[in-house]
Write a structure and sequence with these properties.
Blueprint: H1 3-15, H2 19-29, E1 37-39, E2 45-48, H3 51-63, H4 68-77, E3 81-82, E4 88-91, H5 118-186, E5 196-198, E6 201-203, H6 208-225
Helix pairs in contact: 5-6
GO biological process, one term: regulation of transcription by RNA polymerase II
Main location: nucleus
Organism: Salvia splendens (Scarlet sage)
């Protein structure tokens, strides 16, 4: 990775939370999974109440693995620490309920300076992996946004087309109603004064309400055809 790309990745990393922290925060915030993972009483830490169910049901949905120990190790690299002996409760001063914007301030821990030469290489590989994960996350988000925009445009075009068709049908129905009104004024009914039936609705002569009923029936039947 060239220097300019590293600068860009570092800028993006500082401007948005690391994907691991964001996904973890989403799981803790989800009220549907409170029986498995949730905030503690004062919202300063979160508790994994059911580690087995958490690893089996929740981890694969966001992290593509079901290894609880790996999840705990990842928490440690971001400065979380276990705060209770009788349960899996983890805390970080910038990981708090209702303070999602603080996630950007949490950074992955650096390896100690006294490590061997092999460990810096491993740290660099981990950093590159994190950079790649960040880039994939941004690329996926951009792709999803583009897809949603295209879908919204397609639905708007379809809605405009349906609105135009409905307007045409209404105009035709109005013309038909006007023609029927004129025709009925010219001659009396031929069925003993009971009036015309249109789609099962009987229309009386000269009543404005019946003309409106006829219009509604015509529009309803036309919409079914469309």
């Amino acid at each position: 990775m060239c220097e300019s790309e590293r600068v860009l990745v570092e800028y993006v990393r500082k401007a948005s939370p690391p994907p691991f922290l964001l996904k973890t925060y989403m799981m803790v915030e989800d009220r549907a999974s409170d029986a498995v993972i949730s905030w503690n009483d004062d919202g300063t830490a979160f508790v994994v109440w059911q580690p087995a169910e958490f690893a089996r049901d929740l981890l694969p949905t966001l992290f593509k693995h079901s290894n609880f120990s790996s999840f705990v190790r990842q928490l440690n690299t971001y400065g979380f620490h276990k705060v209770a002996t009788n349960r899996w409760e983890f805390s970080n001063e910038r990981f708090r309920k209702g303070e999602r914007d603080q996630l950007c301030e949490i950074r992955r821990r650096k390896a100690p300076s006294s490590v061997s030469k092999q460990q810096p290489n491993a740290q660099a590989a981990t950093s590159d992996h994190s950079d790649n994960e960040q880039q994939r996350s941004l690329s996926t988000s951009s792709s999803e946004i583009t897809s949603l925009v295209d879908e919204n445009r397609r639905l708007k075009r379809e809605n405009d087309a349906l609105s135009s068709e409905l307007a045409v049908v209404k105009r035709k129905c109005q013309k038909l109603v006007d023609m029927v009104a004129v025709e009925r004024e010219k001659r009396p009914t031929e069925d003993g004064g009971r009036g015309l039936k249109l789609f099962g609705v009987r229309m009386e002569v000269g009543r404005e309400r019946d003309l409106e009923d006829m219009k509604r029936v015509l529009v309803s039947q036309s919409c079914k055809i469309i």
